[in-house]
Specification:
globular; three-stranded parallel β-sheet; mainly alpha; about 220 residues; single chain; 9 helices
């Protein structure tokens, strides 16, 4: 899993949830996370950059079934990561052609945000991110994990809803991290997360609701 704090960072329980979900479902899962705060794919794609060196070293191990790529949010909105994605995927194909590439399209800022002088509401930002991630996946032969769409679905759902975000308008709360894990579970194993009996620290009722939302999102 390659990205920034939305992949793994302080308080981010996505990977812990994902591992526990797999364990409780009788599935094997080994994860190596390469993350750096606010990092962009352009640096992961650069073999001369310190993080690029880390990434290319892992690709050469040729042991990964999947490599999951996650872009910095503002960069994903600006659609300025296609070149980096192409470079990364070309190298993966040359070194480890059996490895599947998955793009985790993450979520827009809760209250929207101004990017490069233009303001985007949550809905407009998410739509832009969805389009740009899908474009990168189509160009590079990757698959999609629609975490951002799941965030939107949850926000539109009926009944009691928990806050998916922390106060910074960007990073997820424990509920958001669990929903992200559900989406990744489906994308990695290609099965519904509803089979999982691990509910993290969000409670069974909320966990089942999030599992069902993630299950509807086709990669």
């Amino acid at each position: 899993m390659v990205g920034n704090s939305l992949t793994y960072g302080s308080g981010n329980t996505t990977i812990r949830n994902l591992k526990k979900m797999a364990e409780k479902s009788g599935r094997k899962l080994a994860i190596k996370q390469l993350s750096y705060n606010n990092e962009k794919l352009s640096n992961w794609a650069d073999p001369a950059h310190k993080n690029g060196k880390r990434f290319y070293k892992e690709i050469k191990r040729k042991k990964w079934d999947c490599i999951i790529l996650q872009e910095q949010t503002d960069t994903a909105v600006k659609n300025s990561f296609l070149s980096a994605a192409g470079k990364i995927c070309e190298y993966i194909r040359s070194e480890s052609p059996q490895t599947e590439i998955i793009y985790n399209c993450t979520w827009a800022y809760k209250k929207g945000r101004r990017v490069s002088g233009k303001y985007y509401s949550f809905n407009k930002m998410q739509k832009k991110m969805n389009h740009n991630y899908k474009k990168a996946a189509n160009r590079t032969g990757g698959r999609m994990c629609w975490s951002g769409k799941a965030f939107l679905d949850y926000r539109k759902s009926k009944g009691q809803k928990k806050n998916l975000y922390k106060r910074d308008n960007n990073h997820a709360s424990k509920y958001g991290w669990y929903l992200n894990a559900c989406c990744l579970y489906k994308s990695i194993f290609k099965v519904s997360p509803v089979e999982c009996k691990y509910y993290g620290d969000v409670g069974k009722k909320q966990a089942k609701k999030m599992q069902k939302i993630a299950a509807k999102r086709i990669g």
